[in-house]
Write a structure and sequence with these properties.
The structure is a homodimer of 153-residue chains. With 153 residues, the first copy, chain A, is mainly α. Chain A has helices at residues 5-18, 28-35, 39-51, 76-84, 108-124, 127-137, 147-151, and strands at 55-58, 64-67. The first copy, chain A, has a two-stranded antiparallel ribbon with strand order 1-2. The radius of gyration of chain A is 17 Å and the shape is elongated. Chain A starts with a helix and ends with a helix. The relative contact order of chain A is 0.16. Chain A binds chain B through residues 1-3, 5, 8, 11-12, 15, 76, 88, 91, 93-97, 103-108, 110-111, 113-114, 117-118, 121, 125, 130-131, 133-134, 139-143, and chain B through 1-3, 5, 8, 11-12, 15, 76, 88, 91, 93-97, 103-108, 110-111, 113-114, 117-118, 121, 125, 130-131, 133-134, 139-143. Chain A binds a DNA duplex (30 and 30 nucleotides) through residues 4-6, 25, 27-29, 38-41, 43-44, 46-47, 50, 57-65.
DNA sequence: CTATTATAAGACAAAAGACTCTCTAAATAG
DNA sequence: CTATTTAGAGAGTCTTTTGTCTTATAATAG
C-alpha cells in the first residue's frame, strides 16, 4: 500500500469531520464507532494531527475534535504529510538514499514523473471535495456502511 | 514505500541481469555482493521469480540465474506483479475491500487515475531500457557504486 | 568417485507497523 | 464539589516484513 494504515485512518476521520458543521466538536469515540477504527489507535493518530495544527481538540463533556480550517482549505496531501511524512513523495523507487537529479538511479526520471502525478492528485483534492462527493453520491467510508448511515445519529 | 523491499531487490537484481549476456548464468552470490543485498534473502526472492518463470536457474559450478526472456521483453511491472502481487495496482487508496466502479469510495475515481499512470509507467519501461540508460549515463543501482564498477569483475 | 559450487528449503531472530489496554489529567455539567 | 466525559501518554501485544543461519540437495569439473 502506498499510504500507511494510520494515514488512511487519518484521511477517513478528517473526511468525516469535513462532512460536519465546523463549529462542532466530534468525540473521538463517535469517530471510531462510525468509522470502525480502534478507539485508542485512532486517538493517537488524531493527536498527531492536533499537534500538527490541523485539528483542534476540546476536553470534557461535549468535547472532541474539529477541523482547524474549513474542509475546502485542507488538501489530502496535508493529512498525508502530517502522518506519513514527506519521504513518501520524495523517496527513490529503488530505495537508494540521496537519489535525485544529480545522482539518480536508472528509474529516477520515470518515477519522479509518476510521483508528481500522485502529489498533484493529493494536492488538488480537498476534504470538502470528497465529503461533498460522498454525500451527493451516497458513497462509503467504511467496509459496509454508506454515507447516509454514516451521518445518522 | 509503494514497492516492498523484496520487490525493489528483485528489480535491482533483474536489472543487473539485463546488463549481462543473456546466455550466461550469474551466481546469486555475485548478485548479492554487487548489489549489497543479503545473499539468503535475495536467494528467496529470485526463487520466486524462478518459480514464476521469469528466471531460469542452473545448479553446480558455473551455475546461477539468468533471464528467461531478453531484457527488452520484460517490463518492470512483470517483476512487480511476480513479487508484490497484483493487489498493489488494484487496491483502494482508503483500504476498503471491494472498492470499484460499482461500490466506490469517495477517492476511487482520482486514485484509479493515478494508479493507472503508475501502471503505465511500469508497463512501458523494460529492463533493457533501464539497463541501457544505466550503462550509458553511468548511473547507480546501489548506495555508493556506479554502473562501471558494478559491471567490473 | 569426490570435492566444489551452486540452488533450495526451512527454522529462527530482529524490526517495524498495527493495534490494545491501562492509567492520568483536564474540563464542565449539574 | 463531584461525577462524567473527554484528551493524552505509555507500556505491552500481535502480525508482517525483513533479514540471518543452518542444513539438504543437485550438478559438474577433475
Amino acid at each position: 500500500m502506498l499510504l500507511s494504515k494510520s494515514c488512511v485512518y487519518g484521511l477517513r476521520a478528517t473526511l468525516y469531520l469535513a462532512t460536519k458543521d465546523r463549529e462542532e466538536f466530534t468525540p473521538i469515540k463517535q469517530l471510531s464507532d462510525k468509522l470502525e477504527i480502534s478507539f485508542h489507535f485512532l486517538t493517537k493518530i488524531l493527536q498527531q494531527l492536533t499537534a500538527d495544527g490541523m485539528l483542534e481538540s476540546f476536553k470534557g463533556p461535549n468535547g472532541g475534535v474539529r477541523l482547524m480550517k474549513p474542509g475546502g482549505k485542507i488538501a489530502l496531501i496535508d493529512v498525508v504529510l502530517a502522518i506519513d511524512g514527506p519521504e513518501i513523495l520524495t523517496e527513490c523507487a529503488l530505495g537508494l538514499p540521496g537519489c535525485g537529479l544529480k545522482n539518480p538511479c536508472p528509474l529516477h526520471e520515470q518515477w519522479a514523473e509518476t510521483r508528481d502525478s500522485i502529489r498533484d492528485m493529493l494536492q488538488g483534492t480537498s476534504l470538502r471535495d470528497l465529503a461533498e462527493k460522498g454525500k451527493n453520491e451516497n458513497l462509503r467510508l467504511t467496509e459496509d456502511g454508506d454515507f447516509e448511515t454514516l451521518l445518522m445519529d
